[in-house]
Specification:
By secondary structure, the chain is of the alpha/beta class. It has helices at 2-10, 14-34, 81-85, 93-96, 135-139, 157-166, 176-184, 245-266, 269-292, 299-305, 315-327, 346-370, 441-451; strands at 61-68, 120-123, 128-131, 144-151, 194-200, 225-227, 332-338, 377-382, 386-387, 404-405, 409-414, 422-424, 426-427, 434-436, 439-440, 461-463, 466-468. It has one domain (54-235, 299-481): Alkaline Phosphatase, subunit A (3-Layer(aba) Sandwich), CATH 3.40.720.10. It contains 13 helices and 17 strands.
Length: 483
């Protein structure tokens, strides 16, 4: 009886076999078209092929408006009138509680508290206190979530920048954009998944450097691609003089053949990465010129971002370009705006910095919203740490500076699954310590990844015998930030 059953089960003729096989091969083909990396091995423990989120995402893309140099939270989004009342009085040791100091204030014998020179008013349904320096951001108060309790472990710019962008204070770790590129891939095969835009303000600058958008130990295809403000937005992208598209195609085909032969010899994955980069550059030759041409934007958009958006390399131009890149499917756009390092003359410099970014930052959120893209685009605005509530150097109520303060600072987020029209967390009445709902850098990373449909504990990569992830061995998603 058993033999008869097996005979019937195995009685499959050639036509039946080929018919069944064709359906299976067709499914494989369709899967590979929809997800090119579906059948590629990887070092992730995500349990799903790279390119698929772990769960349904709220956001598809991120635009990170990074304010390099650390804008003061006490002159922007964390209103502390008590500091004005106590101006000139020494910060109590019970508040400072032995916090380490930078080399710039370590020699100070006293720490005179100083309040904001600028006025604050309440805005939106939440009644969020926002400085007069940011009148346009105040108008979108109901779209943003102000986080007043960000905190970090680094007290100087380089390690703090590196920590916020890569999850570690040392170099050679993949940046946020690289991790998202690695985990989710690109939505547009003609553009990189991770793009970087640079602008410089009118205040004291802190440098930015390639380790902030590095791929680290991940495949080099995940490194951020920097757009410049020059005649060629991406260097070496255009064909050399005398080379047309057809000859370029033939050259790349021959080069790919040689690289494949080299790969067969040494099995170096970077050889395959180089092939992909050459092909991406070829496809970008058509996509990039159209994207970076902002002159074709309608008048009402130009008016919204301000006339500076037509000046290449300005913050406004980069904010508008960030919208175009995101709209075209770029997974992570990182905009660095330098000049926020006000150790002195804060009252003279910070208004200029705010003027450079306020209008365009608000315009970006409004622009995405009216296009129906804000719900699927996470916008982040903020720096690497905060500023002290005491004056650095010579004290004056109308002319002062502030040193670095890692214990508490403010950022804002909008769209992409974030609860708009809210203020999250509280600092003490002197704006020095967090008293409610802290958000550590690792928590921030975990929450950003969550909005993108990624479990931060599962997206990892094995390197030198250890599994690494953006949040290292810490981090938790902050539910209070989520819509």
């Amino acid at each position: 009886m058993e033999n008869e059953f097996l005979k019937n089960r195995l009685n499959v003729n050639r036509r039946h076999f080929l018919g069944k096989a064709a359906v299976g091969l067709g499914s494989l083909g369709l899967g590979s078209l929809l997800m090119p990396n579906l059948f590629k091995g990887d070092s992730s423990d995500a349990g799903l092929p790279l390119g698929l989120p772990h769960f349904a995402p709220k956001a598809k893309r991120v635009i990170y408006l990074f304010q390099n140099g650390a804008p003061s939270q006490l002159e922007s989004f964390d209103y502390k009138p008590m500091l004005n009342k106590l101006a000139g009085q020494d910060l109590p040791e019970s508040i400072r509680n032995g916090q380490r100091l930078t080399g710039m204030t370590a020699s100070q014998t006293n720490f005179p508290m100083v309040g904001s020179y600028f006025k604050f008013n309440q805005h939106g349904k939440s009644g969020a206190w926002i400085s007069e320096l940011f009148p346009n951001i105040a108008k979108i108060a109901d779209d943003i979530c102000i986080v007043k309790t960000m905190n970090t472990e680094a007290i100087n710019h380089d390690p703090a920048l590196t920590f916020l962008q890569t999850g570690a204070q040392v170099g050679n770790r993949p940046s946020m954009g690289a991790w998202l590129s690695y985990g989710l891939g690109s939505e547009n095969q003609n553009l990189p998944a991770f793009c970087v835009l640079l602008s410089r303000g009118r205040g004291n600058g802190q440098g930015v450097y390639s380790k902030l958008w590095t791929n680290g130990f991940l495949d080099s295809t995940h490194q951020g691609v920097v757009f410049s403000s020059g005649e060629d937005p991406i260097l070496y992208l255009n064909n050399p003089e005398g080379t047309d598209k057809t000859s370029r195609r033939r050259m790349l085909d021959k080069l790919a053949e040689l690289n494949h032969l080299g790969f067969e010899d040494n099995r170096d994955p970077e050889v395959e990465a180089k092939i992909k980069q050459y092909e991406m550059a070829y496809r970008m030759q058509t996509a990039v010129p159209e994207l970076t041409d902002l002159s074709k934007e309608p008048d009402h958009i130009i008016k919204m971002y301000g006339p500076d958006c037509l000046v290449p390399g300005t913050y406004a131009a980069n904010a508008l370009l960030a919208r175009k890149l995101s709209e075209s499917g770029v997974r992570f756009v990182q905009l660095y705006h330098q000049g926020w390092d006000q150790h002195g003359n804060l009252t003279g410099e910070m208004p200029l910095q705010a003027q450079d970014v306020d209008r365009a930052s608000a315009a970006l959120v409004t622009d995405l919203k009216q296009r129906g893209l804000l719900d699927e685009t996470l916008v982040i605005w903020g720096g690497e740490f905060g500023r002290t509530n005491y004056s650095q150097g010579k004290f004056g109520v109308d002319n002062y500076g502030r040193d670095h303060h890692p214990r508490a600072y403010s950022i804002w987020m909008a769209g992409g699954g974030i609860k708009g029209g809210t203020v999250y967390g509280e600092t003490d009445e002197l704006g020095y310590n967090i008293i409610k709902d802290p958000v550590h850098i690792h928590d921030f990373h975990a929450t950003v990844m969550h909005t993108m449909g990624l479990n931060h504990e599962q997206l990892n990569y094995k390197h030198l015998g250890r599994r690494y992830r953006l949040t290292d061995i810490a981090g938790k998603v902050i539910p209070g930030l989520l819509a």
